[in-house]
Amino acid sequence: MSEPAREVQDEARAEEPTSRWVTVRLAGETYGIEVLNVQEVLRVPEIAPVPGAPHYVLGIINLRGHVVTVIDTRRRFGLPPAEHDEQTRIVIVEVDGQVFGMVVDSVAEVVDLRRSDIDTAPAVDGEEAAPYLQGVAHLDDGLLILIDLHRVLEDGAGGF
Amino acid sequence: MTRVRSAVGMEGGGGLAGYLDDLLDERAPREAMPAPEGSGQRLEALVVEAGGVGFALPQAAVEAVLPAPTRLARPPRGAPAWLLGRLVRGGARRPVADLAAALLPRGRAGAGPRPWLVALAGRWVLACDRVGDPVALGRSEVRWRRPGERRPWLAGVASAPPALVVNPTRLAAWLDAAAGCGTEDA
């Protein structure tokens, strides 16, 4: 590519809308949750189980007087279970007016993505998590799998 | 893609400890002071980093940790540069302070972005670079400081991890005063 063409391309990229994502780790992979939806990140408090809830619902927590449902994101995505440890966090998200918590192995960092950074058709056929993904971005050290929270919330799966 | 900053993994050491010592008020005695009343035997604190400096915030004063949105509502006209804007949270517009720019000497704070926010109980929200794990600081691990005219928010200096121990009540009052105009509306 010629230098002028590269400059034009760089300028165009600079003007692209960006979105901000908080990256979390799950079963060795890096996932992104859009910051617009994130209310807070907290360590795992006592979780009260809810009898009869879907299998991926861990229970409820009291968050400053509000009852919040917490889901086991690994189980929701069909990933192998893991014990909680010091790095385990709950990401409290709000989507479609509903607030819920997602347990993740750890929270890593915050990244800004341009639209052109995101591939919207991830080739993850056969992966159980695939229905919950909205795209993939390439980081220097691997893929960032972007979570579609609307799909996590809705259910081919019954909702919560 | 822009990598903003890491969330975890505080880095200490180097010349930081000496710098933190220098931040103790010149007029305050350098010998260890008794811990403030109510600090208990151990102070549960969340250590955050801003501008390369650790700040220990009493856990009881921390309402929430969240990633910073790409945009905040504008600060009032004439607000200091460290007042980054206003965060709508829980139906309220809460002022967001760049922790490093507000508290550290000019030239020490470094440039943002500060990708993490710590909402304090009350109304202030602090923008920082990293959020570490909670720590329990023993009384003897902090060189407590008498409140001074300068840096009234500084309760002491912790050695491990090296961090400025913040008095959140005095910090809020100091930010209110330093922000000056219109933070009620902020």
Structural overview:
- The complex is a heterodimer of chains A (160) and B (186).
- Chain A has helices at 3-15, 73-76, 149-153, and strands at 18-26, 29-34, 38-43, 57-63, 66-72, 89-95, 98-104, 106-114, 118-119, 133-139, 142-147.
- Chain A has 160 residues and is mainly β.
- In chain A, the strands form two sheets. In chain A, strands 8-1-2-11-10-9 form a six-stranded mixed beta sheet.
- Chain A starts with a helix and ends in a 7-residue tail after the last helix.
- The model of chain A has no long low-confidence stretch (mean pLDDT 87).
- Chain B has helices spanning 16-23, 99-103, 168-179; strands at 2-6, 42-50, 53-58, 62-67, 83-89, 92-98, 116-120, 125-128, 130-138, 142-144, 154-158, 163-166.
- Chain B starts with a strand and ends in a 7-residue tail after the last helix.
- The relative contact order of chain B is 0.26.
- Strand 8 (106-114) of chain A pairs antiparallel with strand 1 of chain B, so a sheet runs across the interface.
Give the topology, please.
The complex is a heterodimer of chains A (160) and B (186).
Chain A (H helix, E strand, L loop, with lengths): L2 H13 L2 E9 L2 E6 L3 E6 L13 E7 L2 E7 H4 L12 E7 L2 E7 L1 E9 L3 E2 L13 E7 L2 E6 L1 H5 L7
Chain B lengths: L1 E5 L9 H8 L18 E9 L2 E6 L3 E6 L15 E7 L2 E7 H5 L12 E5 L4 E4 L1 E9 L3 E3 L9 E5 L4 E4 L1 H12 L7
Parallel strand pairs in B: 3-12, 6-8
Antiparallel strand pairs in B: 2-3, 2-9, 4-7, 5-6, 7-8, 10-11, 11-12
